[in-house]
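COURSE: Structural Biology Practicum
ASSIGNMENT: Worksheet 4, Part C
STUDENT ID: 0417
INSTRUCTIONS: Below are two proteins. For each, the amino acid sequence is given first, followed by its structure token string. Answer the questions at the end about the second protein only.

PROTEIN I
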Amino acid sequence: MKRYGWLVVAAIALPACSTHKVTGPAFDENADVTILFVGNSLTYFHDVPSLVRQLAARQDMSVSTATIAYPDFSLEDHWNNGIADEIRRLSPDFVVMQQGPSSLVENRAHLVHWSQQLAAVIREAGGEPALYMVWPDNTRRFAFPAVEASYAEAARAVNGRLLPVGTTWLRAWDQDSELPLYSSDGLHASYLGALAAAQTIYAGLLDVDAATLAALDDNVTADRLNVLRVAVAASIQQWQATPSDLHSRFRLGLSGNWFSTLFRRIGRGGQCDGRAGAIGVVGVRLGAQHTLQCWAFT
């Protein structure tokens, strides 16, 4: 039986700005929620999964992640490299999928098709698919709308969560056009760009209020942190019209202060929204509304 709750996590150590693949997929055997990242260097550069874990830890939550990412890999490459077997073996609660910008029409079709292939396996293994929207390289900023459309279409096609990192970058530049989100190579994210990615993934995947997101690094000024928080909130709100099936299932709005209080109330393995045997996951929605997400296992 899968367990949903706020979280305990295993980490994969990786130096910042790594140019090597991230491997060694494994989860903490005691984890309540597990996240598998499947992608390429846009995932492992500055180790975005590690930043997601750090953001959770700042809020007294821990997240178990594993990463399978290789340079220049598409989702088709992952499929041909045996990702389906890894997904079945790991049975993650969430799989965050990412490939290149996919802004061209044929690349969009490719992204949609292979997202659907992986999503079928993800759901077979009991998980939920999510699409990590990336960005075009710095010389092709005009392609941002096409990148957004491609990842939004893929998320709709698999009825999964859209994690709109590219949109977050745009909303950040709306506030400060000089914000250095690209690294010096003009393709990968700077630390600040990777932080924006991790904040978007963390808030979008786990329903965390963007206003509570941490900076993680003392070099990120309070002004820049506020820019990122506003950008994350705006990007997630922009794309909320694409709900996932787990996200919209059995929702019960609650007033309350924090998930630990609510879990003490309902008890693990107790009743949730009147459904015996369901597990509750508390999410902090944008606008600071607390909700209890429930899943009944059959």
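PROTEIN II
(use this one for the questions)
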Amino acid sequence: MKSSKTRQTTANVTNSADKPYFYTTFAVGNGKTKNDKEKHAPSPYHRRTKSSIKKLFNPKKSIIMGRIKKGILGGISGKVGTVVGANWKTTSYIRSLPQNVKNPRTLGQRRQRSKFALVVALLRQLNVILRIGWKLFAKSQSPFNACTAYTLANAVKGTFPNFEIDYSKVLISCGSLAGATNGTASVANGDLVLSWDNNSGINSAEPTDTTLVAVINTAKSETIAQTTGVERSKETQTIKIPANWLGDDVEVYLGFVSEDGKEVANSVHIGKV
């Protein structure tokens, strides 16, 4: 082999016992390399060091703090340094680690926590209907969270610690579909009877829109929620009331959802019955 076509490279590698070994590769004229096995056979230290590296970086035994699933530009899942990566629906985000501070329980914190607890206690009873009534706002948050934010800002009255729900401002559904007009509610033979005007043809209202109904017993903290109601054109609906509710005041709400489920109307608080 001609020296002009051969390039020799020698590397010095030190293992954990500080005993060096050497290996040599040759760049041959055709671009390939080969080890000079005769003069520089791999030592036991070489094999031992490779085995140690495999054990050190064994992914099954390593503690992984965070993963980047889609390359360096992908979303992060887990803790990385002082931030935590997470995913919500199709959105990836990072947030800082919480500070290790004691709970100061300031007046502002206690006021907000009191309002939040009051609102969540109410809306948990309505969750099944909120999934439909507030689904148009579920792109960056859940329907429940969207309704919670609205209720906190608009439907709580009073001062701390005596907050109350303003039932006239609660919305069980929210959207641009035409809502109910001239809605009424009455009790007959132990049933709750709802009625409204058929306003089909106004804006996007259709006779096939169906009702969303919620009846809240504020004394018992119980709720009747119906998501598969009657058509707008029927102008009336009867709700069966539990026997132990007779004599209790109830708050009644009426909304509409389009036949294909893509449009929702702002609900109407018919009133206390």
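ANSWER KEY EXCERPT:
Q1: Residues 3-54 form one domain.
Q2: Residues 1-40 have pLDDT under 50 and may be disordered.
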